[in-house]
Amino acid sequence: MRFPACVLLALALSAPVSAQASASTRDSGDAAHLFAYWPKKGMEDRFDQGYRAHLRWHREKRDPLVWYGWYVYDGERAGMFIDGSFGAPFAAFDRRVDPAGDGADAGRNVTPNADTAFRASYRLRRELSTGVPLEQWRPSKSVQVFHYTLHPGTTQRFEAVLRAARAALQGRSDVPPHTWYEKLVGGAVPQYMLMIARDDWSSYDRYPGGLDGLLDDPTHRIDLAGAVAEVRAETWNYRADLSLVPED
Length: 248
Known about the structure:
28% strand; Alpha-Beta Plaits; alpha+beta
């Protein structure tokens, strides 16, 4: 069943609450929810203005979730806006306040200026990662994002490669944090997303990213080649003015 874009946004941004609604949700869970939009041609500024207004609505409602906003800088999806919530439990999305009001505000301020591109949910894989800056509310100026789509039945081989890569990265101070997410719903699976925090282009001189340069064992190289059906890479530029980071 297809839902109108305003309903999707309402579900995306509705604030979860608990007995202590004002308590911080920072790094309290492993859910990562992404929602993406194509601003309509010629309406990019209006989209940004409307999205800021909608974030104000959530701030006034004391939404305890963090919401990051990025624009895709390069690749096939350049120009797409992606917002995401990280670090809360999946159960947080079962409890919302004023969903009707949320949907109404989104319908006024956001969805008239954009088309829904996708929505997807991931699970943070802490044991495969070297850092979790988004879960700790420390977004970088940009993020290098790899999407690895696997052949069916190769998950164990691929994760063995990731464990080897993590071991190679540990103890290196010249490498930015690597955070791995496993897609649960919202497109092709099995699929994994790697996010590498970047603060400037000079960091690519020190470390270009990707798995190939981290694997010395020929077996791991064979496993990587045999498991991965496709890999895509892109850069997401962080927009602090289109993000909501709750006050502690």
